[in-house]
Amino acid sequence: MQKSSWGHQHLTSDEARRIAKAIARLPEFLMQRHGFYARGGGGRWKPSRPYHVALEDSYVRAHWDEIDALCKLNSIPFNATGERIRDGGLWCVYEFSWQMDAIQFWDRFEGRWLRGSEFIYPERPKDLPKLKPLENWPKFDPRKAR
């Protein structure tokens, strides 16, 4: 008969401190932020993914690799709805289950928050945690985007 060995190891003081800090911040991450409302009812919007952010199409095309890598690094699901909005340009819509994921995505990529079929412009929260940055990522060169 084998014994489980996972219970015999101890956490280092640094690991315990990081876990305690993360647990203390859970209410902050789970609270609803004012101004960042769900998109609302609609035939094509899923209730399981109520938060929608739009990014300008040319921005997405020029920065696709960076957006994809940053979302994977930070475990943010990057789901396109396939919806396109023409409002001073062409905007691609992305959906999120968690409000914090949507807010961080909106903030990092300078998107537009959607409520119904309109863009809204909420204030950036003061205590918004930053996304983990990409290491050794090349700077954007507009000459290579042509």
Q: What is the gist of this entry?
A:
With 146 residues, the chain is α+β, with helices and mostly antiparallel strands. The chain is 30% helix and 19% strand.
How do the strands and helices of this protein lay out in sequence?
Layout: H1 13-24, H2 26-30, E1 51-56, H3 57-73, E2 79-86, E3 90-96, H4 99-108, E4 112-115, E5 118-120
Antiparallel strand pairs: 1-3, 1-4, 2-3, 4-5
Annotation keywords:
146 residues; alpha+beta; five-stranded antiparallel beta sheet; 4 helices; 5 strands; globular
Describe this structure in words.
This protein has 146 residues and is of the alpha+beta class. It has one domain. It is 30% helix and 19% strand. The chain has 4 helices and 5 strands; from the N terminus they run H-H-E-H-E-E-H-E-E. It has helices spanning 13-24, 26-30, 57-73, 99-108; strands at residues 51-56, 79-86, 90-96, 112-115, 118-120. A 5-stranded antiparallel β-sheet has the order 2-3-1-4-5. A hairpin with a 3-residue loop joins strand 2 (79-86) and strand 3 (90-96). The mean pLDDT is 80.
